[in-house]
Amino acid sequence: MLEPFLLRALLFGLGLAIVAAPLGCFVVWRRMAYYGEAIAQAALIGVALALALSFDVTAGVLIVTLAVSGLLLLLGRQQAVPFDSLLGLIAHAALAVGVIAASLASGRQPDLLGFLFGDILAISNADLWWLLVGGAVAMAALTAIWRPLLSLSVHADIAAAEGTGTDGVRLVFVAVLALVVAIAIKIVGALLTIAFLIMPAAAARPLARTPEQMAIIAGVYGMLAVAAGLFLSVAWDTPAGPSIVLVLAALFTLSIVPSVLRR
Amino acid sequence: MQGREGLDWPLQPPASLLLRDRAGRDHAVPHGDGPHGEGPHDDAAHAPDRAVSPPAPAAAALIGARGLTLTRRGRPILTGVDIDIAPGEIVTVIGPNGAGKTMLVRALLGLERLDRGEVRRREPLVIGYAPQRFDIDHAIPLTVARFVSLGRPAAPRPKIEAVLADVGAAPLIDRQLSELSGGELQRVVLARALIRSPDLLVLDEPARAVDYAGEAELYTLIGRLRTERGFGVLLVSHDLHVVMAQSDRVICLNRHVCCSGVPHSVAQHPEYARLFGPQAADAFGVYQHKHDHSHDLTGAPCPADNRQSGVGSRQSGMVAAGATADARLPTADGG
User: What CATH number labels A4-190?
Assistant: First the structure.
């Protein structure tokens, strides 16, 4: 029978894969991979904050991911620096601050590695609650804005002109992304969270003919990768996050073979 | 790979919020560069006070603007532009490249920050918008049918079939959007705007990706649909001849309104000749007097009888002059 910690990790991972799938599709469609990367790396500051002040890590991370999202919205209005450069700058500045702060706060390096790359041992019952409640909120919000967000992603100006896509929709999406990133940090780590979001979606793209199909296929791939990755992790004592991402990378590679051969 | 982010992400400049109006409320847009103090108004409270600002656009207009002024990077893009589009009216904006035609459309739609002036809409107002550029996003899997009802509840298939048939794109219904050619995409984008049953159709260079004969056919189609459904049309083109035949009013734009009026009067206007050269007016004169016959699908002449074919005839005069003998009706799969 499964060890309790492994069962928790499996439940957590499978649940997260379901939530991450539709969200990851939008990250791919809206070209926000690098944006998500910046948010996720900044999450490390939240980890350090939570460790230093000894409160719930996910809550600490959520505060920071939301704050950085807000900061990026403001910075996005300036034209002096290209937005992707800005994202790279913030991602790495946040990573530097986060790593330094987390190592000062915890005093022990192994903790830090867990937060960078994920740690199945770290999944607690509290994390499962976070996933259950946060995941339900994320799914509900995403369902509510699905149609306008999709039309916004296909063509922002048409959506704006016809009144179907508003800034409110964007804000909800960014908040949902911050929430799911905060939850995902635990199992896949700050450095691999975005991979967990975009890789299932990217692997699902060649098979999908509708946006919803893509989200569903991504969910299946994500769950497969969680199960296989955790198995690898237990069998060879590899870190959880990289093991899951490795499986996803393999799935993606398989998925694009037909379209590469066709050319 | 990151290049697209600037397009719709992150949030658009705040002033664009002012015009965006999901519920279709009446909203004057305040201007000046200052921070957007005024958000969208309250629905219920707002309906009666339509004529708050003195130079209000005509009450009957679907959408109108007064003194529209846009400046970008210190350079004037539009200066004091007045425009109104009435229900059932086709207003065509023409002008040379860089005249600010697209910016005018975008300002009317609430996509651009105004420096001065005001835009007003009749309420409620359903807009169907076909922008100048539509770059297909290969990352998003979408069938044509799905795209046509994008942003609204999925339309019943017969309705989608009907609207695609209207624009000559019926065979495309189950294709992936990413497989379409430029001309096909243009028709599908038009179908998407039409299926909303718009009060106002806004078409920015709708014929950009179709050939000359296809262009004439496209404008004839727009004219016919306008007659059937009674929506107003705001059309932008740099092509003078074909477009004008369908227009009730032409606005000749070059950062300001050079001249405007019924097509014939605009063509005679010295400003028009100055902008486009005397030969433009000549060409226009030619087609004005070509409405005694039409061409059928094979290109053979036939008498003009009703409004549609009359309109078509004026165009086909130009088509015959400008295109090869083959003036067949282009279809989406044939073109």
Answer: 1.10.3470.10
